[in-house]
Amino acid sequence: MNSKLVLGINQVLVKSETDNYSWIYDVDPEEFDYLKNKGKIDDDGNLVLSLPFAASLKKFSVNKVIESVDVFVKELNVPELIIEIEDRVPIDLDEITNSTNDQLGEYLVKFGAYKAYLETHLAVLDSKKSVLEASYEAGLDKLLHILDQKYRNETGKKPVKESLRGEAIALSPQLRQLKSDIIEIEAKRVRTSGIRESFKSCYDMTSRLISLRTSNRGDQV
Predict the structure, then answer these.
(1) Do 172 and 200 lie in a common domain?
(2) CB neighbours of 176 closer than 8 A, spacing ≥ 6?
(3) CA-CA distances (angstroms) from residue 41 to 30, 31, 138, 160, 198?
(4) Pair 13, 119 in one domain
(5) Is 98's pLDDT higher than 80?
(6) Average pLDDT of the chain?
(7) What is the pLDDT of residues 3-53, one digit of tens each?
(8) In whole angstroms, what is the distance from residue 87 CA to residue 201 CA?
(9) How far apart are CA 217 and CA 205, in angstroms?
(10) Same-domain status, 47 and 102
(11) Is 155 found in the same domain as 90?
């Protein structure tokens, strides 16, 4: 027979949507009314939140989530890609067409390695960006709810959502910092993606050259 789980005052149960793992979270009293609209009450009478809504909690830490992701990746036990980039010699693309077959093979390995290296960094940037965006949207949603309730109680009128949005951002240095972080990481992601595409194009071009030479050599046999 299962014992009943009774949470304390201002405690919620956070459950992962991907497995059965759950944990108890302490929340500030001012957040509880907002969270009641985001969760559900279980059979024991406890407020249960799905994992994404944890980002709306005041004590939620973006850095802790990112650190947790880093630990998860390390525990995958896959080899780490290491590329020596100390002596980055510029590559003249015009010289590639005049390269020997052996040199083309070296270029193909180099372009492929850099492409994979950049894709790894893109995955890290995408992961961090998704955490930052979830935190920003959840934090903004929570503050909008609090301001909406405050405005209705004080004036008895329904507030204009856009004006509340501006007020929420103005009142919250955390939201402004998150928005700044999102813009910065998106800029890094776009720049990294552009460089990755350049190396992908070089890899594809070199691969085609090798295929053409192999094909021509076969025609001459």
Answers:
(1) yes
(2) 169
(3) 19, 16, 20, 31, 52
(4) no
(5) yes
(6) 80
(7) 677 787 778 877 765 556 677 777 777 777 777 777 788 888 888 877 656
(8) 22
(9) 18
(10) no
(11) yes
SS3 (DSSP) at 24: strand
**Is residue 2 pLDDT above 60, yes or no?**
no
Q: What is the pLDDT of residues 110-144, one digit of tens each?
A: 899 899 989 988 988 998 898 888 888 888 888 88
N residues, the chain: 221
Q: Which domain holds residue 50?
A: 1-54
My answer on whether 91 and 180 are in the same domain is yes
Q: With 80 as the cut, is the pLDDT of residue 64 above it?
A: no
Residue with tokens 């802790």: 64
> Which of 124, 136, 115 has its CA nearest to residue 188?
124
For residue 2, give the DSSP letter.
P
The residue type at 193 = S
Tell me the C-alpha distance between 151 and 64, whole Å. Answer: 34
Phi, psi of 81 (to 5 degrees): -80, 125
Domain total in the chain: 2
